[in-house]
TrEMBL record:
Single GO molecular function: oxidoreductase activity, acting on paired donors, with oxidation of a pair of donors resulting in the reduction of molecular oxygen to two molecules of water
Pfam name, any one: FA_desaturase
Primary gene name: Fads2
Stated name of the protein: FADS2 desaturase
Gene3D superfamilies (UniProt xref): Cytochrome b5-like heme/steroid binding domain
Residue intervals passing through the bilayer: 124-142, 148-168, 271-291
GO biological process, any: unsaturated fatty acid biosynthetic process
Pathway(s) this gene product operates in, as recorded in its UniProt entry: Lipid metabolism; polyunsaturated fatty acid biosynthesis
One of the record's GO cellular component terms: membrane
Membrane topology value: Multi-pass membrane protein
Provenance organism: Pomatostomus ruficeps
Length: 467
């Protein structure tokens, strides 16, 4: 059944006739050189298309041999438009007797989740508020301008420098949350506008690469907390995470670092790594991204280079954005603050923002299940890897609404100001199927990061010594 059906996808043209495939056959096509996807019961050969996929070839490869319907709907704000790219890749459909879900997933749960998504669409919860995001960008720029005015009128005394560090750290952290919104296409109706503004915010406010961020972050959302698929849990032997990896390392007598002390040297890495940045224009190199950094230009003390970087993006040979300088007011501050004071100010900002970023982004994931691929349905896989933090005005602002991590992972293109509206529907669906919906106070979430690292370290030590 289905023999020769892949020819339609390889040739770039639709198959001459409908071919039917079983899940057993489809699941065999999950190799690097042979990738099939199922979307709404239609089978696509994406082997050659993967390298041209705007979200990167890895994220689409992670779903090879599976039903990718929910992932497809989650990442694309205009599925109808994307269908024109899928049409030439169509090679057939699931056989009439085959279930819509692979690997004995709960079909009723999957259907109920898709009904929930349709309800959210009918409630206009995927429609962004221009006022919300305009005010959000405005309060970031206001902090940048305020910092420049403080230097202009009050000089560079130690008190002013300390206040400057706090203001610029806050503006940088908030710019990080804002670029996250545009990166997920959750602000404008058109993907192109989101991409343009994303490049501006992450490039000119953050001094980082939009392409690099997309490459990593979409993989994280597609397969959160799954080894070899989620780059955020690829610790390169610095940490062991979850319950299975520590035991595996211990049994193999792997000891790149004393993992039983990882909950302690976690704090040390937060102190040292922000200052190991290869580029003075990148004010944030958090631990998780520092382990797999983008290509960055070397630092330069020449004023002419500073001026050029403030106005122009920098591109690599592949035509991808590498980095740009942060917003123009920060350049003016650099003209005012020179020498050791300038270096001290930058170090303070990097230190504070690095802590802010890592604690907030890891509080939802590190204490949750981290394991190998289990091929769960979309709802179950996201719920196993994420948790929420209690809602409050401060928590919403401080975390960039990442305290609604569950809703964000289920609906990544939903504007963050609507998470609280869909939350009751998600909780109700989870309760119906006995799926754990975990929510905790902000302080406990931070403590749980350390506790989780300690637990994993203890598991490693026990296996290392006794197994």
């Amino acid at each position: 059944m289905g023999k020769g059906g892949e020819q339609g996808g390889d040739s770039g043209e639709p198959a001459a006739q409908i071919r039917f495939y079983t899940w057993e056959e489809i699941q065999k096509h999950n190799l690097r050189t042979d990738k099939w996807l199922v979307i709404e019961r239609k089978v696509y050969n994406v082997t050659k298309w993967a390298n041209r996929h705007p979200g990167g070839q890895r994220v689409i490869s992670h779903c090879a041999g599976e039903d990718a319907t929910d992932a497809f709907q989650a990442f694309h704000i205009n599925p109808t438009l994307v269908q024109k790219f899928l049409k030439p890749l169509l090679i057939g459909e699931l056989a009439p007797g085959e279930p819509s879900q692979d690997r004995d997933k709960n079909s009723q749960l999957v259907e109920d989740f898709r009904t929930l998504r349709k309800t959210a669409e009918d409630m206009n919860l995927f429609r962004a508020s221009p006022l919300f995001f305009s005010l959000y960008l405005g309060h970031i720029i206001a902090m940048e301008v305020l910092a420049w005015l403080m230097v202009s009128y009050f000089g560079t005394s130690w008190i002013t420098t300390l206040i400057l560090a706090c203001i610029l750290t806050t503006s940088q952290a908030q710019a990080g949350w804002l670029q996250h919104d545009f990166g997920h296409l959750s602000v404008f109706k058109k993907s192109s506008w989101n991409h343009i503004v994303h490049k501006f915010v992450i490039g000119h406010l953050k001094g980082a690469s939009a392409n690099w961020w997309n490459h990593r972050h979409f993989q994280h959302h597609a397969k959160p907390n799954i080894f070899k698929k989620d780059p955020d849990v690829n610790m390169l032997h610095i940490f062991v995470l979850g319950d299975t990896q520590p035991v595996e390392y211990g049994k193999k007598k792997l000891k790149y670092l004393p993992y039983n002390h990882q909950h302690e040297y976690f704090f040390l890495t937060r102190i040292l790594l922000p200052f190991l940045t290869p580029c003075s224009h990148t004010l944030l190199i958090p631990l998780w991204s520092w382990l797999d950094p983008p290509s960055l230009i070397p630092p330069s003390s020449q004023l002419t280079v500073e001026v050029i970087l403030c106005m122009l993006p920098v591109w690599n040979q592949a035509g991808k954005l590498i980095t740009t300088s942060p917003l123009f007011p920060r350049f003016l501050i650099k003209l005012k603050v020179q020498g050791k004071k300038k270096e001290k100010l930058q170090n303070q900002i990097m230190f504070l923002e690095s802590h802010w970023f890592v604690w907030v982004t890891q509080m939802n994931h590190i204490p949750m299940e981290i394991d190998s691929e289990k091929h769960r349905d979309w709802l179950s896989s996201q719920m196993a890897a994420t948790c929420n933090i209690e809602q409050s005005f401060f928590n919403d602002w401080f975390t960039g609404h990442l305290n609604f991590q569950i809703e964000h992972h289920l609906f990544p293109t939903m504007p963050r100001h609507n998470f609280w509206k869909v939350k009751p529907l998600v909780k109700s669906l989870c309760a119906k199927y006995g799926v754990q919906y975990e929510e905790k106070p902000l302080g406990k979430a931070f403590v749980d990061i350390v506790g989780s690292l300690k637990k994993s370290g203890d598991l490693w030590l026990d296996a290392y010594l006794h197994k």
